[in-house]
Amino acid sequence: MEIIEAISETPKAHKRKLDKRLILSLTKPSYLLSLGRVHIRWENRQRLCYLLEKLVAKHKWAEASGVLTILLKGTSNDCSADLNRLKYTESVKLLKHIEGDHQVDRRRIRDIYEIWMSRIRSKTVQVEERIALNLEFILFCLTHGYLGWAHQATLSLMKEPDLSCHPISNLVMGVTFCQLWYSNLSEDVKRRHPNQDYTPQQSETSGSKFSNQIANSEENYAAYTHDAVTSQYNSETSVMNDKRETPVADRQLHTEVPAQNYVNLQSAHIPLEVEQLGSCHNSAENEAGFYNDSGYTCDPSVFSALEGLESWLMPLQLPHCSENFVDMHRQLLNSHYNDAVKYLRMALHAAPPLSAALLPLTQLLLTAGQVNEALSEVKSFCNNSNMPFPFRLKASLLEYFYSNDSVVLSNCVEEILKKDPTSRPSLARLVSIYQNGDYSLESLVEMIALHLEATYPESNIWREFASCFLKLYQYEEDRLSVCLNGNKGEQKANLSINYKRMPKIFTERTSRNAWRLRCKCWSIRYFGKRMLESEIASGAWELLTYKAACASHLYGKEHHYVVKCLS
Question: The whole model's pTM is what?
Answer without folding.
Answer: 0.70
